[in-house]
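note to self: the first set is below, dont mix up w the second
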Amino acid sequence: MNDVRRELGQWGERIAEAYLLQKGLRIEERNYRTARGEIDLVAWEGDVLVFVEVRTRTSMKYGSALESITRQKKKKLREMALAYLQAKTKPSRPFRFDVVGIQYQDRGGEAHTGQTPVITHIEHAF
């Protein structure tokens, strides 16, 4: 991943975190690393553990932020969540997968970081 994409992803994760905090979730982990990859955010909403995938897009050229989550990505997220649960939590904790999409309005494929992005939060995404 190049530096520009990495910075965009980190920026999107900060926006998503602020949004989730405003909604009352409590952030437990940021960028939790497993052998299979990284979980963007792990949060608590009450007694429910929430695994959050954040997707940030600057144009609609290749689809929306939310459309970018493939079947393979979902499988990988499930595997990473299982690793987290085995390492970090007590048995039988309720959990779910959420997706936060950070999408700029498409203006010819150019990034417009000065504009306010559209934030879409899908609870129980899969």
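second set (the one i keep forgetting abt)
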Amino acid sequence: MDNDDFDVTLRAHPRGHWLLAVAGELDHHTAPRLRSTLDDLPPAPDTAVIVDISGLNYCDSSGIAALVGAYRRVVDPGGRLVLAGPDHEMMRLFGIVGLDQLFTIRPSVEEAAAALSS
């Protein structure tokens, strides 16, 4: 797999949250890029992160581990994290491995932002 098939960006969302957009194939080749980007997040109790996975088209066990790592990085110090935009296949995968029980998941970034703002 070519790492050009993966993109991860971190920016501020207009509502004051962090928006982490993940697109392409999240696997053992690309998961380190996600972890590296997470290092830019402040580990603080007031950190709120939306992880936009609407552009994610593949996720293996390394990708799942990276998403769980993101959760721990944000939530363990008291922050909040919401996944946004999974397609049907990603929701099926999350259901199989139990991530649907761990994560708050919303259909869109704006719905995730609203969940974090409430």
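remember for set 2: The chain has one domain: 3-117.
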